[in-house]
From TrEMBL:
Keywords carried by this UniProt record: DNA-binding, Transcription, Transcription regulation
Name recorded for this polypeptide: Crp/Fnr family transcriptional regulator
Keyword Transcription: yes
All copies of domain HTH crp-type, residue ranges: 148-218
InterPro entries listed in its UniProt record: cNMP-bd_dom (IPR000595), cNMP-bd_dom_sf (IPR018490), Env_Response_Regulators (IPR050397), HTH_CRP (IPR012318), RmlC-like_jellyroll (IPR014710), WH_DNA-bd_sf (IPR036390)
Matches recorded under SMART domains: cNMP, HTH_CRP
Cyclic nucleotide-binding domain segment(s): 14-117
Organism in which the protein naturally occurs: Pseudoalteromonas neustonica
Amino acid sequence: MNEQDRAIINQGGWFNSRSNELQLALLSSAKIIELNAADALFHRGEANSGLYAVLAGVMRVSGVNGEGKEAVLSFIDPAIWFGEVALFDGGLRTHDVYAQTQVRLLHIPHRALIQLLALNPIYWHDFGILLSQKMRLLFSSLEDHALLTAQQKVCKRLAMMAVAVPLSSNKATIMLSQQQLADMTYLTRQTINQILQILSEKKLISLHYQRIEILNKKELALLAH
């Protein structure tokens, strides 16, 4: 791992809040994985392969029904860890995870995690914190679905996805199609297009093919509330 990779990992709230001992233990077992856009990292029903963190690019978490329709649940940005659910229950992967763009990942193999936890059971608490953070986001998402207007849902989702860009910048570029945004917010493609056109007219975003450029993260976040 180079210095740039370490700097990105340190931006993540969960990793940065862990003890130096746990950080070093994780990084000592880490491997680097690179994927091209549309490559699959793992599929629903596959065995647990370990824990991952995004170093560069964006990952897409989704599920597909029997008719082949994909429902996008979320996108995973740099400095975010994922894959911890199967660590706790020993079960299979719950969703499909693909590279939305060209991606560089940090991978902690499952065997290394189990060995680490066997020697240091106290670290289960640290991984429990990671899992609980995801649960809080899930509860917040369920509440948003029930209470927010369509425009608020779109603004909040875009604002959340733009957070990965350094705070010194008020802009962000998100690799995302309108259909994927519709799937994530449980809105129709037509509604998404109407809302994005309004935000574009307000100079908050700029629309491109398979890409949305956030021009004012602060104002977008305000509209979400």
